[in-house]
């Protein structure tokens, strides 16, 4: 019966179809859209290192003091710690109802700094990394056979500066560059 009625009043049917089409187009254009929508990540990492320290000592001397300080914070739903020889990573997850994440991460930084004052001398960190909302658009691997790491350091840093000059580039990280070290050893026999 519906088809027969649509065939009998074809003008009304065409009008209704046109209105539905126009309404769909208006609704589609009204939907908010972004090329790269922002993603709220409710996690942060606190990392700490003491090269050469065994896992058990890392847990007792580094991870536990940091965890104890961070457990005092309101708004933290979960704390998961991963301990390896020489390093520990503490992952914090905020509750879904926490609205001001930057303020919470600032309190995490303050608590991590408090814990850092209690850590053994020579400890690297604690470092707080809450920058997970950025989307990595490009990962570039650079190799230079025949060149040493120290010879690559300068050109890579210049490349980073050039990348910062491009529109839309917010962050460039260099991974794998090692700090230059000079080791001096003395021959005791020759010194005497």
TrEMBL record:
Q: Could you tell me the superkingdom of the organism this chain comes from?
A: Bacteria
Q: Which UniProt keywords apply?
A: Membrane, Transmembrane, Transmembrane helix
- Quote the SUPFAM superfamilies the UniProt record gives: Multidrug efflux transporter AcrB pore domain, PN1, PN2, PC1 and PC2 subdomains (SSF82693)
| One Pfam entry name | ACR_tran
Query: Which chain regions cross the lipid bilayer?
Result: 12-31
Task: Give one GO term, molecular function aspect.
Answer: xenobiotic transmembrane transporter activity
| Classification via PANTHER family | CATION EFFLUX SYSTEM PROTEIN, PTHR32063
User: What's the protein called, per UniProt?
Assistant: Acriflavin resistance protein
Species of origin reads: Xanthomonas vasicola pv. vasculorum NCPPB 890
Q: Which GO terms describe its cellular component?
A: plasma membrane
């Amino acid at each position: 019966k519906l088809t027969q009625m649509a065939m009998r009043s074809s003008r009304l049917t065409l009008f209704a179809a046109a209105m539905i089409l126009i309404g769909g187009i208006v609704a589609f254009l009204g939907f908010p859209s972004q090329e790269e929508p922002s993603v709220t990540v409710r996690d942060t990492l606190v990392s700490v290192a003491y090269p050469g320290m065994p896992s058990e000592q890392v847990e007792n001397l580094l991870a536990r003091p940091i965890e104890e300080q961070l457990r005092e914070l309101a708004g933290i739903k979960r704390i998961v710690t991963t301990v390896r020889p020489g390093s520990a990573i503490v992952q914090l997850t905020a509750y879904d109802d926490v609205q001001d994440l930057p303020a919470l991460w600032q309190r995490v930084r303050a608590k991590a700094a408090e814990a850092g004052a209690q850590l053994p001398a020579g400890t690297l960190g604690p470092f707080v990394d809450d920058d997970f909302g950025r989307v990595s658009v490009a990962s570039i691997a650079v190799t230079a056979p025949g060149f040493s790491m120290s010879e690559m350091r300068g050109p890579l840093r210049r490349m980073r500066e050039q990348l910062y000059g491009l529109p839309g580039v917010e962050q460039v990280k260099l991974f794998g560059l090692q700090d230059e070290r000079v080791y001096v050893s003395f021959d005791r026999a020759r010194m005497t």
